[in-house]
Design goal:
This protein is an all-alpha fold. Helices cover 84% and strands 0% of the residues.
Length: 147
């Protein structure tokens, strides 16, 4: 039952972040400058990914894993706030792909939590890298400003 609750909490965090991202009013994106949101997102994302790796692999602590995923979701919300508020097709694609990368990170951390053999610990990380490359294909097309 313990593992079902951990997975349910991670799924709930993802669902709440998705809804907060899509239902955040445009005024929030207009009130907070994009550079400030990016600078606020970087420590949350990097800190959450690092502590998630340490909680999943080093400590095997479900509480630490849940806290790190929550930290990553806060960083993702700050990072994608301006993209979700613009409403264009390209912005929707960036939000979907960014959220897909977050879900892939969460699944990779969860897989690290359940792998007990040290020899297989690199497999979720390699799969996470390959899935991130798949999710980020054609990403330059959306970010290119006509150079």
């Amino acid at each position: 039952m313990y593992h079902v609750i951990v997975v349910a909490l991670l799924f709930t965090f993802s669902l709440v972040t998705w809804n907060l991202l899509h239902f955040a009013p445009r005024s929030v994106a207009m009130f907070l400058p994009q550079r400030l949101c990016t600078l606020a997102a970087i420590p949350f994302l990097l800190g959450g990914a690092f502590t998630g790796f340490m909680a999943g692999y080093g400590e095997t602590s479900a509480e630490g894993l849940i806290a790190s995923v929550a930290m990553c979701h806060v960083g993702l919300w700050f990072l994608l706030l301006h993209w979700a508020g613009s409403g264009t097709y390209e912005a929707q694609q960036v939000v979907r792909r960014g959220f897909a990368m977050m879900v892939l990170l969460m699944l990779g951390l969860l897989a690290m939590f359940y792998i007990e053999d040290d020899r297989f610990a690199a497999v979720p990380e390699l799969l996470l890298l390959a899935a991130g490359l798949w999710a980020a294909k054609d990403f330059e097309r959306f970010l290119d400003s006509g150079r």
